[in-house]
């Protein structure tokens, strides 16, 4: 049975799921694409953070068969940024999205939003 992507909590879990979907073992994946098995194993078990370099992340995504600009591509990069405690670049560049991050942070901390602020957030999401 295919693992529900919504249940994935880490970059390593997502990476491993995608590698397994290619039908390759860790060793065969690394041999085919020229990666060090210990390095990839540490990424998959979240002992090592994903690379910060966008080109290196892109190479990993490509090896996993993740198509550019697909939902999996966006998730892959989002999880990589999150694992480093960073906000994804596209969010940082979008001033409109940045305006609503405090609402998201308050909600994540369990604070209630006013109906007006909640509606603003819903409108932002629906307009994307």
Q: Can you put this structure into words, describing what you see?
A:
This protein has 128 residues and is mostly helical. The chain folds into two domains: 5-89, 434 Repressor (Amino-terminal Domain) (Orthogonal Bundle); 94-126, no CATH class. It is 63% helix and 0% strand. The protein has helices at 11-21, 26-33, 37-44, 54-63, 71-83, 89-93, 95-108, 115-126. The longest helix has 14 residues, at 95-108. The two termini are 32 Å apart. The mean pLDDT is 84.
Please give a quick description of this structure:
This protein has 128 residues and is mostly helical.
Strand content: under 5%
Number of strands: 0
Write down the CATH topology of the largest domain: 434 Repressor (Amino-terminal Domain)
In the CATH hierarchy, what is the class of the largest domain?
Answer: Mainly Alpha
How many strands, what sense, and barrel or not for the largest sheet? none
End-to-end distance: 32 Å
Shape: elongated
Gyration radius (Cα, Å) is 17 Å
User: Assembly type of the shown chains?
Assistant: single chain
Unreliable sequence segments = none
Helix content: 55-70%
Q: What is the overall pLDDT average? A: 84
